[in-house]
Specification:
The complex is a heterodimer of chains A (157) and B (426). Chain A is α+β, with helices and mostly antiparallel strands. Helices cover 45% and strands 11% of the residues of chain A. Classes of the chains: A alpha+beta (157), B alpha/beta (426). Chains A and B meet through helix 2, helix 4, helix 5 and helix 6 of A and strand 5, strand 9 and helix 13 of B.
């Protein structure tokens, strides 16, 4: 979808800014909001770039730097902490060779941590894009990552 | 013995949540029809009489909120009022609103339309956290169907009352679950809290009178309209009538959710509803109400789970989160995790919280670096968090004191002698 088409879907009122930013980011190949995106939004909403930047930089779901194709969000809430998320997390950083916030060289994954995902009955939990994965173990996390890599290889990404 | 009593969860798992017909087959939207034939003041009166209290955590009287919103004087000729549903569920250990939105989205919508009618609101917003993809999908679908059936839109069911409801999405800010901050975010701003008063009932969204209720609270309204306030009052306790969804997680055999009458004992929730302690390990503590909550020890297992009984014991019901910790878990590590969470989520608008949450984390590090000053560091934690409770602008900065007080009160020995378990998740 073209960026201008996304903007046109929303009446030019400031109250729509989060919906617009979500839509632009979801349609971005690299899962982020560029400076150009923010300029377009500012123009559409007839406001300044700084006020749009202020909003976009406040909310943790928005990224102002390019990210990978899949966003991994590992829950770091107290519940997942108790359920042993540290072991899973360490295994994940080992497999991906990533620190928090970084992207794999093949641009397949970006690793993020998040506050409670509301999946506490499945702790420890994470999401990859829209999909929830729960009751994670060091073994299951390896399988999940392998599946994504396999799928990506077969699609020739 | 503990038995489930389902009001907010009455259809969850029993209907196809994507089907409005399934919902209507189980009596759905009958309460709306009844309400629309009743004067709006009577609806407000009934909800006030039912004693329903907000299920988001604060426990304020829902009826009074409605009364204040409906009575708010409008200076302008066009008397716009808003209704907002707080579906920005982010309190750690809480997922009750997600279960309702994913399993019975029409119940929320019906409750919201009735509440809007009661206060005379013409526009509504459901503010859902951006991470709740499934909830967003289900609510979006349900809104479209409700519209097609005439339960939303112009002159609903020919009553002359009109309401439109829109979905708005959060974007990863815990603080936006606080009602005034949520309104800021709805207006398209950074999620900074407002000073109150004025309360939303007087000056809320876009400065207009606004009723803002939690998902679970609104989901109780259809049943109250159908069965009456007296019926509702028979459930639960004298001062906390009705039912409550508890989300039980941590070291139990069957983590999950259950809706029971207010006043069930913590012991029954853990040992009956959640199948007991995982692998039979001894119970050490439960964290009630999430990160903005309190630790309770074994001696309080018999406590009645309602707003006032818990308050009397220095604990909180909060959102209904029950995080169970066995002897394997460390209070110090849990407290550290909670304080890091607050540090991360502090918005930075007011100094006591911006600086205070950071200092609490630093104090935890000092406390952990074993030395003979540990009792002093613990006293400093208490002092610092009390200061924040008195001076911070919003509930976020006022909350760390809850966990710190309760941890120190019941587990001081452990705080003085143990270490934070290693390899923490940054």
């Amino acid at each position: 979808m073209k960026k201008t088409d996304i903007l046109e879907k929303f009446p030019p009122r400031m109250e729509n800014v989060l919906l617009i930013l979500h839509d632009l980011q979801n349609n971005s190949r690299m899962n982020y909001l560029s400076e150009k995106d923010l300029c377009l939004v500012a123009k559409h909403l007839n406001t300044t770039l700084s006020s749009i930047y202020g909003v976009a930089s406040y909310y943790s779901m928005f990224s102002l730097t390019p990210r990978g194709k899949h966003i991994i969000r590992m829950c770091r809430s107290p519940v997942c902490h108790c359920a042993g998320v540290n072991d899973v997390f360490n295994e994940l950083t080992r497999i991906l060779k990533l620190d928090v916030g970084a992207t794999t060289p093949d641009r397949l994954f970006t690793l993020e941590t998040t506050a409670c995902l509301g999946q506490c009955d499945l702790a420890p939990a994470m999401t990859i894009d829209d999909v929830v994965y729960g009751k994670l173990t060091a073994a299951s996390i390896a399988t999940i990552i392998a599946q994504y890599r396999k799928k990506s290889a077969s699609q020739g990404d | 013995m503990i038995t489930e009593y389902n009001i907010a969860l009455r259809n969850v798992g029993k209907i196809n949540p994507a089907s409005i017909q399934d919902y209507m087959d189980r009596g759905g939207y009958e309460a709306l029809k009844k309400a629309l034939q009743t004067p709006s003041e009577k609806v407000v009166h009934d909800i006030t009489q039912s004693g329903l209290r907000g299920r988001g955590g604060a426990g304020f009287s829902t009826g009074l909120k409605k009364k204040y919103t409906s009575q708010a004087s409008c200076v302008l000729l066009e008397c716009m009022r808003y209704i907002v549903c707080n579906a920005d569920e982010g309190e750690p250990g809480t997922f009750k609103d997600r279960i309702i939105m994913e399993g019975d989205p029409h119940l929320l919508i019906e409750g919201m339309v009735i509440a809007a009618y009661a206060v005379g609101a013409e526009r509504g917003y459901i503010y859902i956290r951006g991470e709740y993809h499934q909830s967003i999908t289900m609510i979006r679908n349900a809104l479209a169907h409700a519209h097609a059936h005439g339960f939303l839109g112009n002159s609903i069911l020919g009553s002359g009352f009109s309401l439109d409801i829109e979905i708005k999405l959060g974007a990863g800010s815990y603080l936006c679950g606080e009602e005034l901050t949520l309104l800021e975010s709805l207006e398209g701003k950074r999620g900074y809290p407002r000073i109150k008063p004025p309360f939303p009932a007087e000056s809320g969204l876009f400065g207009k009178p606004t009723l803002i209720n939690n998902v679970e609270t609104l989901s109780h309204i259809p049943a109250i309209v159908i069965n009456g306030a007296r019926w509702y009052r028979q459930l639960g306790t004298e001062t906390s009538p009705g039912t409550k969804i508890f989300t039980i997680s941590g070291d139990v055999n069957n983590p999950g959710y259950t809706e029971v009458e207010m006043g069930a004992s913590l012991r029954d929730l853990i040992y009956r509803a959640a199948g007991g302690m995982k692998d039979g390990k001894p119970f050490k503590a439960a964290l009630l109400g999430g990160a903005a909550g309190t630790f309770v020890p074994e001696s309080l297992l018999g406590v009645s789970m309602d707003f006032d009984a818990l308050k009397e014991k220095g604990a909180v019901l909060g959102s209904g989160a029950v995080i169970v910790m066995s002897n394997d878990q460390s209070i110090l590590t849990m407290l550290d995790s909670i304080l890091r969470f607050f540090e991360h989520e502090s918005c930075g608008k007011c100094v006591p919280c911006r600086v205070g949450t950071r200092q609490l984390v630093d104090l935890m590090e000092k406390l952990n670096g074993a030395d003979d000053k540990r009792p002093d560091h613990i006293d400093a934690l208490v002092y610092q968090s009390e200061l924040m409770a008195k001076t911070a602008l919003c509930p976020l900065g006022q909350s760390p004191v809850l966990a710190i007080h309760s941890a120190v009160r019941y587990f001081r020995d452990e705080l003085e002698t143990t270490q934070i378990s290693q390899s923490r998740c940054r």
